[in-house]
Amino acid sequence: MATKLQNLLDYSQEELETLATSLGQPRFRAAQLRGWLYRGADFEEMTNLPETFRKELKENYAAGRLSIRRRLESALDGTVKYLLGLGDGNFVESVLMKYKYGYSACVSTQVGCKMGCSFCASAQAGFVRSLTAGEILGQIITMNTDLQIRIGHVVMMGIGEPLDNYENVVRFIRMARDTNGLGISCRNLSLSTCGLAEQIIRLSEEGLPITLSVSLHSPFNTQRSEMMPVNRKYPLDKLLDACNIYTLNTGRRITYEYALIEGINDSEAHAARLVSLLKGKLCHVNLIPVNRVEGTGYEKASKKNILSFQKILAAGGINVTLRRTLGRDIEAACGQLRRAEDENRRQ
To answer: Do 104 and 117 lie in a common domain?
Structure first.
């Protein structure tokens, strides 16, 4: 059943000040309230707020921390995958990864996805709705609180297409980098898109120089359109033009994500064509051995083909890396836990 409570994590500092004064409280209560919200506290824990204020908040608002429906931890590398419950009964997935430099979180921006990419588990579960900025923020706060850590890097690469939820995602970015909130630098915020060219250009004008990752997966328009329907609206020339504008306006290098699929897009011809498309651009290619998703028929490229592909790109002057696979024993790729949960609920 949908909740009617408003999520206080959707409120900016100024909006919390307006709320506090409208409820008869001094303006400084907003900073106290926000501090508690960003620590994942329930209203009962906010002991420096007047009891009457806390009671009114509890009756009409939600503190924003999400419920943990499932939590899987990898025995291989400590990666933690969460299935998190939203206030309306829907679910999203988030993943926490630990690196030498600290903790990084992969968060979702929608419940499901409209884009229909053929290799993606998120698309198979269907689209329900977009998340609010507070619900995206809530994923980070929930993980911070659960493990008593501080997440310093965030990638918007979970369920959903971030640029299809443009307003809420940009609002989230502004909240996340606020030094009075999470205080995460734009350079530690990454957004992954399947290639909504017009929104890439729009994002480049926001004054938010985050890292942009573009899911490419094929250097040939016909094949990319089959794999990623978005390419029919934004073919490679339009997409790459938009990426050039993003680099020009932000000064940031673009990462092109390329999932290597056995017998589909892992040939030397694909690698050579990719070099011709990207040579001379301020970019980096991240090669991803594809995750096996039931129903797609796709399999990870062979080690031989992966290394050959990487070698061709490097020889062509392209900065290229092979993504380290984390959480293999818990299927840390996005979309699979939510799809399983939906199937269980239908039974």
So the answer is: yes
Tally of domains within the chain: 2
Residues 123, 195, single domain; the answer is yes
Task: Determine the Cα–Cα distance for residues 174 and 172; give it in Å rounded to an integer.
Answer: 5
Residue 325 and residue 206 in one domain: yes
Q: What is the pLDDT of residues 31-64, one digit of tens each?
A: 999 999 999 999 999 999 999 999 999 999 999 9
Domain hosting residue 335, numbered range: 67-346
* Selected catalytic residue, list 113, 120, 243, 334: 334
Q: Are residues 50 and 187 in the same domain?
A: no
Using the 8-state DSSP alphabet, how is residue 246 labeled? H
Question: What's the whole-model pTM score?
Answer: 0.93
Q: Which of 17, 93, 161, 341 is catalytic?
A: 93
Which pLDDT does position 220 carry in this prediction? 98
In Å, how far are 89, 112, 116 from 120, measured between CA atoms?
23, 11, 8
**What CATH number does the domain containing 36 carry?**
1.10.150.530
Contact, 241 vs 197, CB < 8 A?
yes
Query: Is 93 part of the annotated catalytic residue set?
Result: yes
Q: What is the pLDDT of residues 144-198, one digit of tens each?
A: 999 999 999 999 999 999 999 999 999 999 999 999 889 999 999 999 999 999 9
